[in-house]
Amino acid sequence: RNTPDLETLDKRYFFHPFTALADHERNGPHVVVKGEGVWLEDNHGARFIDGMAGLWCVNVGYGREEIADVLQHQALTLPYFHSFSSWATDTPILLAERLIEMAPVPMSKVFFGQSGSDANDTQVKLVWYYNNARGKPGKKKIIARNRGYHGVTIVSGSLTGMPSLHSGFDLPLSFVRHTTAPYRLWEAEPGLSDEDFVARLAGDLENLILAEGPETVGAVIMEPVMGAGGVIVPPEGYYPAIRAVLDRHDVLLIADEVITGFGRLGTMFGTTAMAMQPDLVTLAKGITSAYVPLSACMVSEKVWRAIVDGQGALGAFGHGYTYSAHPLAAAAALANLDIIENDGLVEQAGARGAFMHARLQAAFADHPLVGEIRGTGLVGAVEFVARKSPATRFEPALKIAGRVVKAALAQGVITRALPHADTISFSPPFVISEDEITQMVEGARKAADAVMDDLVR
Ligand code: PLP
């Protein structure tokens, strides 16, 4: 067979996620065929710096033989067996132990799935089962935040606080509510202190819980640092204030660590960096550096004990996927954690992150299109505004971030548009060098200049 024309085959057969389909039928795909370190190569031989580690996930970089070797060994030894009822395989047990030992706050058990979306669905079922088990079946509502991203299944997509991901699907489901994000640029007037901003945000959440009735609210779900919603870092004192509200109303806190888990913020977990005290933790992406799909829900002893003690009347916890605790995925996760620990990649992400933020400041602080530069650890973002003061948004139809991303690609740099915030984001593999960071940021800066030239023309 000749080299297949991938563009033609793609247009003919492949239904792309998150894609304007009519545009895609015209324009076709961009096909990646190879990765090494932080570099990707397409099917025409062009090379790009992957400034997003795929979708915030290939943290140890592409082409790690350590993971490939373990996958080959595991596939030959035992590619699959399930974990329903009393069955188990070895690698998920070892991974569960390791996760509980490294957990950012004391945790008791781990439930495995395959994606961040299904893990957050599992979290909702855990919250419901927990409240049923302790005789509080009314506590069904789940509160998330505007701009939060928690996935795209019917439940996790409802938690996601982005109207554009609800439209067309009749979401969100009726038990979901959304509260204010800690998004200083648009939610706080200039000069508002962190303390006052935190008090306002905690007040918004408490007022929502009171308005709904605390006896109807089961949990709140939050990303330690919001990713897809715009790389939004909460102010100091935010999570302790949120936790105090939740404790007053017997509401659980789910930390969605799908992006922040396993080093992205320069600490092993984002909950530590952000002083968050969750009852449940969602993990995915960086757990295997995306070499194999895997997600995990970590469950605290409080939740676990109530579930076990109250199970009598409810029957077995009737939830689990064919691929829950997949032995191949767990083996990949163990190898990935070995790399992160042996190579000191958490500290490295912190150090390279500090370098990246210095470069972003140098490149963008006085750029006419830039309203804010955000981030912490090895995750950063640049938000574009039509006017700096008072901050004024561009017309969404101008798609500034999208145009910068496209122009950056022409510079050999992959970044990502977060259209809900007119923001471009940077979340490279932890193995990125300082030179590669400089190249990535310079490429993005040239791209922003090109878009500006276009605007004034
Ligand atoms: N939660 C967060 C914070 C995410 O960033 C994502 C994906 O980007 C998800 C959940 C959903 O994960 P998945 O795409 O694996 O379903």
From TrEMBL:
Name of the top EC class for this enzyme: transferase
CDD domains: OAT_like
Any one GO molecular function term: transaminase activity
EC code: 2.6.1.-
InterPro entries with a match to the protein in the record: Aminotrans_3 (IPR005814), Aminotrans_3_PPA_site (IPR049704), PyrdxlP-dep_Trfase (IPR015424), PyrdxlP-dep_Trfase_major (IPR015421), PyrdxlP-dep_Trfase_small (IPR015422)
Necessary cofactors: pyridoxal 5'-phosphate
Key words of the record: Aminotransferase, Pyridoxal phosphate, Transferase
Similarity remark: Belongs to the class-III pyridoxal-phosphate-dependent aminotransferase family.
NCBIfam families: PRK06105.1
Name used for this protein in its record: L-2,4-diaminobutyrate transaminase
Organism: Labrys monachus
